[in-house]
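Dear support,

I submitted the protein below through the web form. The confirmation email said the job was done, but the results page showed an empty box. After a refresh the structure appeared. I'm attaching both so you can tell me whether what I see now is the final result or a partial one.
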Amino acid sequence: MAKNYDLVIIGGGTGGYVAAIRASQLGLKTAIVEKEKLGGTCLHQGCIPSKSLLKSAEIYQQSLEASIYGIDINDISIDFLKVQTRKQAIVNQLYQGIIGLMKKGEIDIYEGVGRILGPSIFSPTAGTVSVEMNDGTDNEMLVSKNVVIATGSNARTLKHLEIDGDTILSSNEALQIQQLPDSMLIVGGGVIGVEWASMLADFGVQVTLIETAKQVLPTEDRAVAKEMQRLLKKKGVIIYTDAHLQVDTLKKNNDVKVQVKQKQKLIDLQAEKLLVAIGRTPAVNGIGLENTAIALDDSGFIKVNQHYQTKESHIYAIGDCIGGMQLAHVASHEGKHAIEHIADLHPTPINYQTVPSCIYANPEVAHIGYTEQEAKEKGYQIKKGTIRFGAIGKALINGKSDGFVKIISDQQTGDLLGVHIIGGNATELISEAGLAKMLDAIPWEIGETIHPHPSMSEALAEAALDINKMKIHG
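What the results page shows now:
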């Protein structure tokens, strides 16, 4: 027997469950289909567990450096099973919180694989969702006025480099390791690769990082990438940029042996384990798109308009499966926007230039807007201001004097074009920059805003003032 809804959401990750809550708030009868656990990749295999491990690694490093602060600690060691136990406890607590929110919103949950059907006896248009239930019971048929696809993404793999969960890992398997390896070879120097390199190095693992681009963090401002590379090397990370893994040279036994090619030179590398961290691909297979008019782009992402409608106007798609910034907080806001569009609330399209992008390595990295290189490529005449955290009192107090803040503005209009931070608390500080961009503030207004002293946020004011050569410190 078919069940009727105002909205069915396929995928219960950050984008999907937030969309469901917003729909419930607006009085829409809502169901969510999830094949694994609500919370998706972010909660169970990405954002939350990885940041928990990063925090443990940071605390370990701080403990090793405790004598700098006048604190003597002896016999410092890592109990990695306790590290993993803490991580899982955080994940479990947040998961239970999501389950509670679903009950509060009276949102029906179907545990299984959802597939979109074409026109049928249930509906004259595509959009009925058939759910193959995990418990083996008969398929459920969900007839809905609207559908939101929020199926997320999967870890990208390399041809002929199969993930075996033992010596060759994706981030999913790496999060579950019960013992730290002595050495790790990381393929990919983007966000995921750099976070893992930083974490493992802080835990005392010998890390080698391979990146095909000319810099680690290829999408970040060059100055930020250069600083991150310097600080990773300071931790002992060996880095090969503009380098290509020669997959056909891979040998596995109790460890991994492989060659990389850099400037026509072949380099032999060896490590206990190899982590593949080369980005993510859209999870769109097996959900019935072939039964609809929904179109994909050349990379396999679902094509949508500014309100996240697909070619089937009553079927929306959000989050990683549509490409773009592929961030949990972006998926959440895309989900809320789609729901408000369904409810005819006429939401304003998201301005992605105001969205913070964060990297939770040690040190952290965060930015909004254009990099210096992007701004110049778009034809802007720019002005920029910078301040190193070494000139900021709170940074010295915190022992986080590495890194800097860089602000880019339009020379003609004074408009804020981009803010880039590498250093302590960068992922918290960036929200001020996002608000400034959203409110169309100019750097002068950031600089003239009185910031507390001592605080890390003073760096934003100083960098903003530096655009007009007015900074006080540094």
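Response: this is the final, complete result; the empty box was a page-load delay. The longest strand covers residues 140-149.
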